[in-house]
Prior knowledge:
With 211 residues, this protein is an alpha/beta fold. The termini are far apart. The longest helix is centred in the first third of the chain and has 26 residues, at 18-43. The protein has one domain (43-209): 3-Layer(aba) Sandwich (Rossmann fold). The radius of gyration is 24 Å and the shape is elongated. The chain has helices at residues 18-43, 70-85, 105-115, 132-146, 162-172, 189-209, and strands at 55-59, 63-64, 67-68, 90-94, 123-126, 152-158, 178-184. The protein contains six helices and seven strands.
Amino acid sequence: MRRKKQYYRPYGGRRKPVWLLALLAAVLAALLSFAVLLGVVLSGAHDSITGEPKVMVILGCKVESWGPSILLQDRLDKALDYLEDHPDLTIVASGGQGPDEHQSEAQCMYDYLTDHGVDGNQILLEDQSHNTWENIRFTQALLEQEGIDTSQMLVVSNGFHLTRVRMLWDRAWEGDYTLSTLAAPSSHIPSRLKMYIREPLALVKSYFFDR
């Protein structure tokens, strides 16, 4: 009598459903894509000063009832540190007023900077923008209106934000210019974690839709 051959069956003879394999592949692809995007975000999270900037642009962030949020204060303190050694820059405070804010982000920044010794006459307020793309476009229009040389500029924001800022700046600005960056720390850890999760998605959104 012939013996029946026994074949190795890695899953006990039970195959995983095709839909489950497809789901696992999709999840892995999504995680890999997110990791790549996060790496791109992190690549811009550092100070980069080229030449001698003449204009400093501070991008707004949420205003609380008592003043700047922690993330916004991080940006302002970073700007103040730089201004100690470069006090003569023209400053643009860029940020409008959200529905849950009692004043515009630009006005909040103006108040904080002047309270810390900055001459209010060197600060321009851009108080109509509500997102990063508008920050950049409206700042561009304001500087052109004021006839200010924009060949060497410096933008201040939290580190997680700067890759997207530079991408949109290059999209909005025409002509020859040099853009330096100051990467403010994100000292509030929950906000830092939230933003590093959010920012890769915002980068994709801005790449396709902010024009």
